[in-house]
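Researcher: Structure for this, please.
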Amino acid sequence: MEVESMSRILTIANQKGGVGKTTTAVNLAASLAAAERRTLLIDVDPQGNAGSALGIRRDESEKSIYEVLLDDLPLGDAVRKTELKFLDLVPASRHLVGAELELAEIDRREYRLKQAVDSLASSYEYVVIDCPPSLGLLTLNGLVAAQGVMIPLQCEYYALEGLADVLKTIELVRASANPGLKVDGIVLTMFSPNNLSNQVADEIRKTFSKQVFNTVIPRNVRLSEAPSHGKPILLYDVSSKGCQSYLELAREVTSRFRPAGGVA
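Model: Predicted structure, C-alpha cell format:
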C-alpha cells in the first residue's frame, strides 16, 4: 500500500565511503529544519555518525533504529529531539553491525523500514534516511522505504564507476520491491576548484544533465570540523561556504520536491 505523500521520503545512498554521504544527510536535514520544515533524520548506518554529528552519541539511547527493524518497536518511540526545533532524529545502534545477518532470517525483510516509516511519515514534511556505505540489507531497506534517492558524488576519478553500481541497485529495487523509486538527484560533493574536479563535474553533468543538482558542495574545513563539536554546520559556522552550500541545496530540494499539503 502506498503511503499518502504528505512528506518526501529521501534516502541518501552511495556504497562508496568518504563521499560526504553522512555530511549531506545531516546538513541537508538541518538546513530543511532551519527553513521550518518538519524533518526526521533516520540513521541506518552502524557507525552512528549522523547522530553524533547532532550531539547524540550512538548508544546513549536504549531505543534506536535497531529495535525498530528487529523488535517491531514503533518508530515514534525511537525519535529523539535535537537542538533544532524542527529536526528530530532516530539514532543508530552498535547492534546494527549484526542486523544484516539477523534481517536475513526475517520474512519480507526488505520492507521493515518502509513499514515503520509509513506509520510516521505524515508527521513530517521531509524524512531523510542515512544509509551505510554498502549495498547490503540496511541500504536495501532505505531504498525500499524511499520515494527518492539522493546520491552524493565526490568529484574524483573513480566517481562514475561507483555511480554505475548505485544506479544498477536502484534499478533492481525498482523492478522488485519499490516501482515508484526515483533518483531525486546527484549532489557533487567535496569539490575543489582544480582541473580534475572540473572535468569530473562536467562529465557527470553531460551524462546525467537534469539529475544533477545545481548546488555544488565545496571541500570545506569548517564542514569537516563541525561533527567533532556535535553540531550541524549551521550551528557551528553559519557563514562558512559549506553551510551556505547546504542551505542552497535545501532550497533546491524544497523547490523540486514539495510535499503534498506542505507549504513550499
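Researcher: Any notable elements?
Model: The chain has a mean pLDDT of 91. The CA atoms of residues 172 and 243 lie 35 Å apart.
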